[in-house]
Write a structure and sequence with these properties.
Layout (H helix, E strand, L loop, with lengths): L3 H5 L4 E10 L4 E8 L5 E8 L3 E5 L1 E2 L2 E9 L4 E5 L2 E3 L6 H13 L1 E13 L8 E12 L10 E6 L1 H10 L5 H16 L4
Parallel strand pairs: 4-10
Antiparallel strand pairs: 1-2, 2-3, 4-8, 5-6, 6-7, 6-11, 9-10
Amino acid sequence: MENNAQTRQWTEKTVKTEPVFSGRMISLQVDTVELPGGGTSTREIVRHPGASAVIALVDGKLLVVEQYRKPLEKFQVEIPAGKLDPGEDPMDSAYRELEEETGYKAGSMKQLHAFYTSPGFADEKLFVYVADDLTAGEMALDSDEFLTVEALTFEEALRYIKEGRISDAKTIMAVQAWQLYRLTGQWQ
């Protein structure tokens, strides 16, 4: 890999930003940029406040939610997750989303990973936590949220991936992290 001084030469300087859309979840802008080799181009950029997701095991089973995902026009099984509120700490969001979507409260959370979901066109950063010391409580879904909660064995989770019922990156990564945990006894 090249060192930072060499790769900085490829930085694109923003010449102009045109806001296109601003909604409750995302905003879209088109930036005109100066290219490193000369000339200009445009970049369509989705701005997202970030999100938190939670790996939660209850009696050795992974808590997941199933909900309809309009962009895919199908139901998906995913680990609990949700958008950060303005200024919200990602860990606070993880606690909130776990309880709202599953009814379970976590006694503690540990950040496992943080990653950009689609850096080619979006700035969304997803923070993944592992919940511990879970106690059952009551779900508190948003008025526009409709989902069911399920607890999957490891074998069921693998089968759901194979069948395409689990097909999002955060949940596939969660199942892989769970597999490492089963092998090593540590969340990695």
